Amino acid sequence: MQSTTQAAVETTHTLPLAEASQPGRLVSLDVFRGITVMAMILVNNPGDWGHIYAPLEHAEWHGCTPTDLIFPFFLFIVGVSCVYALDGVKRRAEPLGPVLWRVVRRGAVLIGLGLFMAYFLKWDLATLRLPGVLQRIGLVFIACGTVFLTTSWRTQLWLLASLLIGYNLLEQLVPAPGATEAVLLPGKDFGAWLDRTVLGENHLWASSRTWDPEGLLGTLPAIGTGLLGVLTGQWLRRPNIAPAEKVVWLMVDAVLLIVLGLIWNSWFPVNKSLWTSSYVLYTGGMAVAGLATLYWLCDVQGWRRWTKPFLVYGVNAITVFFLSGLLARGLNTWKVAGPNGTPVSVKTLLYQQFFVPYFSDPRDASLAGALACVLIWLVVLWGMYARRIIIKV
């Protein structure tokens, strides 16, 4: 990661902050990214994991809660960002070698940061979780950047359809070795078998060790989520089309994706852990609708006074996700003496002293703890934004 006084937005833009309103830069994309990562910080840092309001939890298996929208929104944004970062290179027909190398290098850095997060304070390679959120973001970035640079939008559309249909057929027709039939149960599907075989049980999600929500096979449809962003970004970049027309067709596309996702759900259920094809379409439709709405408000109408907190988060999205993860791990690992002398984590002690006594419902206390975390990071990021400190990957 490197610091810069130029406001390059993660891997997306290279224009100064003062030029946010100029053509070619999507303020709405920065805002959308900020809203998404802010929501990610909120759901990842409750005061008490045992007391959480249902919308702030993932669906137990099949189904989709508001929390289940966050990660696909981020991958969708990655796809849109690839277009805005690389479209000029593609139009100028620059040599692909150096550009592809930069794409791979940036993706590899994200993967490395994810592995470090998993290793931090555990310092145990024998049980290091290999899949993860940043790892999947890195792989999707590499795939989407490469596909965008080397193919047309029509080829990208066919690739998207092939990924989703092929993944559906594989998961529902191919049983895991040793099983008599293909099933979509935790740890029983073909993807879970592949993770255990290739990565080993000790390197999977610690809560199961039999499957991983960011596993290998599920990364293929996750690339499909990114490709939806790539296709959307190309539509937004098309010249000679009125902004209002772009928004209308994006909304039509959003409704179509949501409806198709719900139809597909009848035989291949919406499921974040498996990243099912129906989940890709359903959440992709939601993401298209969200970006279209923000595009109309921020970039077309120019209503931006309310956007500052989200911009502050959006321009340092990977930074805050990475650092907040390290901090949370540190506060949970650092033990101190509790009120009765029993060792407790610093995080637990702070929560019990500053939140629990002031709320009768433990879910409210837990939510207050999460909101406090969001606000603390907002103060930090606001200071960085004011000093034009943007950390790029």
General description of the model:
This protein is mainly α and 393 residues long. It has two domains: 1-57 and 304-393, no CATH class; 63-302, no CATH class. Helix content is 60%, strand content 3%. It has 13 helices and four strands. The protein has helices at residues 27-44, 70-91, 96-119, 133-150, 153-173, 190-198, 219-237, 243-264, 277-300, 308-314, 317-333, 346-354, 362-386; strands at 2-4, 335-337, 343-345, 390-392. The strands form two sheets. It has a two-stranded antiparallel ribbon with strand order 1-4. The longest helix is centred in the last third of the chain and has 25 residues, at 362-386. The N and C termini lie close together (5 Å).
Number of strands: 4
Radius of gyration in whole Å, from Cα?
21 Å
Spatial order of strands in the largest sheet: 1-4
* Gap from first CA to last CA: 5 Å
- Structural domain tally: 2
For the largest beta-sheet, the strand count, sense and barrel status come to: 2 strands, antiparallel
Percentage beta strand: under 5%
Low-confidence stretches: 1-23
Structural class assignment: mainly alpha
- Report mean pLDDT, rounded to a whole number: 92
Shape: globular
**Number of helical segments with 4 or more residues:** 13
Proportion of helical residues: 55-70%
- Secondary-structure element string: EHHHHHHHHHHHEEHHE
Organism: Hymenobacter koreensis
Protein name: DUF5009 domain-containing protein
Keywords: Membrane, Transmembrane, Transmembrane helix
InterPro entries: HGSNAT_cat
